[in-house]
Amino acid sequence: MSEEIRRFTHLPSDRAPGPDYSGPGVEAELTGRMPEARPAERPERTERPERTGPLERGGGSYDDLYTARASSALGKVASDDGMLDVRIKAPGELGGPGGATNPEQLLAAAYASCFHNSLTLVAGRQGVGTSDATVDTAVTLRKRGTADDYTIATDLTVRLPGVEPEAARRLVEQAHGECPYSRAFMQGAEVHVHLA
Questions:
Q1: Residue 153, φ and ψ in degrees, nearest 5
Q2: What value does the mean pLDDT take over residues 104-127?
Q3: pTM for the complete prediction?
Q4: Going by C-beta distance under 8 Å and a sequence separation of 6 or more, which residues neighbour residue 157?
Q5: Res. 13: pLDDT tops 80
Q6: How far apart are CA 55 and CA 60, in angstroms?
Q7: What's the DSSP call for residue 101?
Q8: Which among 103, 107, 89 is positioned nearest to 154, based on CA atoms?
């Protein structure tokens, strides 16, 4: 499986027990302790957009654990805490100048990281070490016809050195079923668009 690209197009029915994702981090799930935030690190509470109702899947509503915020303006994107601050340019393949990151790269990086976290959680619950695991993600921008009809496609390649192929397949399928990004792509994400 090390060189094989696995495409998952369904939500497995044999999901592992436990939460889908540990908002405070993988260590919270693996150690059973929530990391304590120092007072200076606690973000100020800001007014959240009003929702039409709670996000519900699987018979219950979800609780908000963490909200990331970023803004795009004048060819750059930055997070509200300053941890992310990068220039954005269209790649040469799309007629742009290149020389900077782009939305597809940022999405690929975020998806790879999130899936890797979910894989670590799933494997940790089963006592399988994943210190050598890697997750490569490809995000492809696609267009249909001549109209502005765009969509994206994603491919994940997971490598689990030293793990039996069948066990690796099971862990990857379970991680795919639990990764919030995978679920958003498969089941649809809750999206609210507001005009300020």
A1: -125, 150
A2: 97
A3: 0.72
A4: 4, 5, 6, 135, 136, 137, 138
A5: no
A6: 8
A7: B
A8: 107
